[in-house]
Design a protein that fits this description.
- By secondary structure, the protein is of the alpha+beta class.
- Among the domains are: 74 residues, ATP-grasp fold, A domain (Dna Ligase, domain 1, 2-Layer Sandwich); 75 residues, Alpha-Beta Plaits, CATH 3.30.70.
- Helices cover 29% and strands 32% of the residues.
- The chain has seven helices and twelve strands.
- It has an eight-stranded antiparallel sheet.
- It is globular, with a radius of gyration of 21 Å.
- The termini are far apart.
Length: 283
């Protein structure tokens, strides 16, 4: 449905049904299937892709096969037990404008303020990987629609008494329209990237640099010390040759071989080039 009270932007919300029992979930999935629509099932306490099932109608010849798949998934994970579940229309994404942009808003006693708009990256299972933000990270026209919708929702949350951070996740449909998927009432997957850019680059970061992040890059089968990890990438660590570009390690696994990173470049191409160099170090 269109949120008609948002001026200067057409923003949509996917059709969805809130369910409390497995029977209601199956009825909702069947409702979408019978209308030739794919759907997603979302657990109330899901996080970073966990607690989300994407059900493409193309993969199931009959609804019975989809039902069997859902029941097997529910048996294997307790996140589906005893909690509210949302069954939602699956919006086919448009890769031209970025698949899944997101906005973060901060509300204090003066009202809402947008901190950043980013694009999100996910793995093949729908798990959250990281974000990209800065110069040309999000299509300009799409970004303006997202900002308009975000401030509208932020004002409603402000009136309801909410204070603090939250984000709004969007998906861009095949015909280029932003659909609102959800909000997360907390600091979000890109907050630390925004904080790093604001402190390192200043308030002009959005027009000066492009950044991309990943929170869980697995670099091998054996855990290395922090000194070994940093030493391997010493030539591309921020700041490269005293320039405001390079790799920043944001987190490092204590027991397993992974780290998180932020890459800052002068452009999307520059950041992608640094990322390629980093990947070559870990082949």
């Amino acid at each position: 449905m269109e949120i008609s009270s948002i001026k200067h932007a057409s923003v949509y919300v996917p059709e969805s049904l809130l369910c409390q029992t497995e029977l209601q979930i199956m009825d909702a999935v069947t409702w979408f299937y019978d209308r030739d629509k794919s759907c997603a099932i979302k657990a109330n306490f899901g996080e970073s892709g966990w607690g989300t099932l994407l059900l493409s109608k193309k993969k199931f010849r009959k609804v019975d096969g989809m039902m069997l798949f859902i029941r097997n998934e529910f048996k294997e994970d307790a996140i589906w037990q005893g909690e509210l579940v949302l069954v939602e229309e699956y919006v086919e994404p448009n890769g031209l404008y970025g698949v899944a942009p997101s906005s973060e808003i901060y509300i204090n006693d003066d009202g809402p303020k947008i901190t950043y708009v980013c694009d999100q990256a996910f793995d093949s299972q729908g798990g959250f990987l990281g974000v990209s933000l800065g110069k040309n990270a999000v299509n300009l026209g799409i970004g303006e629609k997202i900002k308009t919708a975000s401030l509208y929702i932020g004002k409603r949350f402000f009136e309801m008494g909410y204070r603090g951070f939250f984000d709004i996740d969007f998906i861009i449909s095949a015909d280029g329209e932003p659909f609102i998927l959800e909000t997360n009432m907390r600091r979000t997957g890109g907050t630390h990237v925004y904080d790093a850019l604001r402190n390192l680059i200043g308030d002009v970061w959005e027009n000066e640099v492009f950044a991309l992040s990943q929170d869980n890059f697995v670099y091998g089968d054996r855990k290395l010390s922090a000194e070994e990890v940093l030493g391997k990438m010493k030539n591309i660590l921020y700041p490269i040759n005293s320039q405001k570009r390079g790799v920043i390690i944001s987190i490092m696994g204590k027991k397993q071989p992974f780290f998180g990173f932020i890459i800052i470049g002068t452009s999307k191409e520059d950041a992608s080039g640094i990322h390629s160099q980093m990947m070559n170090f870990w082949k």
